[in-house]
Structures are given as structure tokens and as C-alpha cells.
Amino acid sequence: MSLADLPPLREALAEHGLLARKAFGQHFLLDLNITRKIARLAAFEPGQRVIEVGPGPGGLTRALLEAGARVTAIEKDARFAPLLASLSAAAPDAFILVIGDALIADEAALAAGEPAHIVANLPYNVGTPLLIKWLTGPWRPASMTLMFQKEVAERIIAPVDGQAYGRLAVIAQATCEAQVVMDVPARAFTPPPKVDSAVVRLTPLAERPSDARLDALQTLTAAAFGQRRKMLRASLKALGGETLIEAAGLDPQARAETVDVSGFLRLADAWLAAR
Ligand code: SAM
Predict the structure, then answer these.
(1) In this predicted model, what pLDDT tens digit does every residue of 60-111 receive, in sequence order?
(2) Which atom in ligand 1 lies closest to the alpha carbon of residue 29?
(3) Which CATH architecture has domain 3-204?
(4) Could you give the residue range(s) of every CATH 3.40.50.150 domain in the chain?
(5) Closest by alpha carbon to 223, among 183, 175, 271?
(6) Could you give the dihedral angle defined by the CA atoms of residues 169, 74, 203 and 214, in that order, rounded to the nearest 10 degrees?
(7) How high is the pLDDT of residue 152?
(8) Cα 217 from Cα 129, distance rounded (Å)
(9) Coil, strand or helix: which one is 184?
């Protein structure tokens, strides 16, 4: 059987008696026009390795395989294994399924030592921790094309001073170039979630901040945005307060939401230098 001969996704779900489970954040994309568009936006080359988190019934997986990716998919819900076995049959050398939890997975092992892109319609409940892991962890993806709740997508790309600007924007923009590449209405999913979604494409910057700088950035942004209405000199008091702000060349009246990514990187450097 080839990919083109696979039954429609709705039929495959019915045949295997599979219903979406809320606990796993399951909202499926059953329209292959949408999954093909996401695969195109991911812009990988045929033959390259893609790690997909949460293939579920495999609509996005099919599109990735059609576009020539060699896909390693990690799925927490083992109920999908028999359905996804049909993809192994249709693309025998291009598809590997791992049953496991992406939050604790070793991406280097999933990628088998090759560079790899991540493409996923992420479960809403773990989307942000997964992104932080990929932005700051030891393994670095070639690119990430990820579906999030729209509100999370806005927090990733938020400009300084914007309402959605916070820790996620600082960490994402210190490590990647990030843009929203597609809006997806709630009705495109089965079952539909309560909110709309968006696909974000993240391309790692050629020079990622060192691990020490990233750790410092995480500590400082947690303190700064944990008390966002306070001035930085108060919210960062335990970490060096005014001395730190002066060393970073920032306005002593600054609040977290008015400090841009380069300002936070300077704070990280000042904090590291003072320790
Ligand atoms: N990719 C499918 C699609 O687009 O139709 C399903 C997307 S659904 C929003 C999220 C998928 O991630 C589900 O299949 C769910 O079981 C799986 N999942 C949830 N938590 C996970 C985790 N921690 N690790 C791996 N997969 C997970």
C-alpha cells in the first residue's frame, strides 16, 4: 500500500474505534489540505529528518511523508500504534514511531544523530514546556514549525512593550527568529478546541547565547516578569537590583515589559559577571 492508498483519516479512526481524549490534548487535523500546507511551511528538504510530536491519527505525518521527510514520531497515547502501523507499511523506510513522552524524550536519540526539524500540532497542555525545552536544551533543532493556541503564538512573537511580551518572547527571540505563518480556526480541528490556533515557525539564530547566558536569562526573566508591575530594581532586588540595572546600561525606572531582548541579555551578562 502507498501513502495515496491510505483510507481517509475519519475512516481510519472509526475502523480502530478511536475517540479523542481530553487528557492528552487531542484535537485532530483531519483535512489533508491543512496538514499539507503546514508541511510546506515547514520548508524542509526531501530526505531530511523531521521529528513529529503527537502524530495521533497521522494526518500531519502523512503530509510530512508525502513531502519527502524521514519522520520519527513520538506519541504518548499507545492506542494510536495500530493505526499508525499503516504508515510504516506505506512508507517503510521513512517512518519510525516511538511510544513515549516528548517532555522527557532525548531528541538527539530520536534524530539518530542527524540534524532534524521539529514539526507538530502540539498538545495545548504541554506546548509551552516543550518549546522551552527545545529553545534552551542541549539538543538544537534545525527549525521548528509548531501549532499553538493563538494566545501562546502571540506571546512567542510579541514585541517589547506589547501586552503579550514576557518570558516566552524574550527566550524565544534571544534564540530564534520567530514568525506566525498560518492562522487556524478552532473549527478546523476534530473535536474543535475552545480557542483558535496559529502555526509559528522558529529558525534558530546562527549564534545562540551560551548555556550560562540562557540559564541567567531564565532566572532573570522569571524574577522580572513574576512581578511585572514593579520596577526592575525592585523585582530584581535579590539578584543585584540597582547595581545590575546600572551595569546593564538600563534606565533605573525600567519595568520588565519595557526592556527589549538585548537589554535582558545585557542583564544576564551583568549578573554572570557579578557572580
Ligand atoms: N498530530 C495530530 C493531528 O494533527 O491531528 C494530533 C495532534 S493533537 C493536538 C496532540 C497529540 O499529541 C495527540 O495525539 C496526543 O496524544 C499527543 N501527546 C500529548 N501529550 C504528549 C506528550 N507528552 N508526548 C508525546 N505526545 C503527546
Answers:
(1) 999 999 999 999 999 999 999 999 999 999 998 999 999 999 999 999 999 9
(2) 5
(3) 3-Layer(aba) Sandwich (3.40)
(4) 3-204
(5) 271
(6) 50
(7) 98
(8) 16
(9) strand
User: Whats the size of the chain, residue-wise?
Assistant: 275
Angle at 94 between CA 91 and CA 95, to 5 degrees: 80
- The kind and range of the H/E element at 227 are none
Alpha carbon distances (Å) from 160 to 6, 127, 168, 260, 261: 47, 22, 12, 5, 8
Atom 5 of ligand 1, residue of closest alpha carbon: 28
Q: What is the pLDDT of residue 241?
A: 87
Distance 78 CA to ligand 1 centre (A): 11
Q: What is the pTM of this model?
A: 0.96
Domain(s) of CATH 1.10.8.100: residues in the chain: 211-274
Residue whose C-alpha is closest to residue 6's, from 44, 37, 32, 41: 32
Cell (9 digits) for 36: 499539507
Q: Class for domain 211-274, per CATH?
A: mainly alpha
Spatial distance between the Cα atoms of 219 and 170, rounded to a whole number of angstroms? 12
Å from CA of 26 to ligand 1 middle: 6
Cβ 55 under 6 angstroms from ligand 1: yes
pLDDT computed for residue 49 by the predictor: 98
CB of 250 within 8 A of CB of 265? Answer: no
Look at residue 228 in the predicted model and tell me its pLDDT. Answer: 76
pLDDT score, position 212: 95
Distance 86 CA to ligand 1 centre (A): 18
Residues of the chain with pLDDT under 70: none
d(CA 131, CA 123): 12
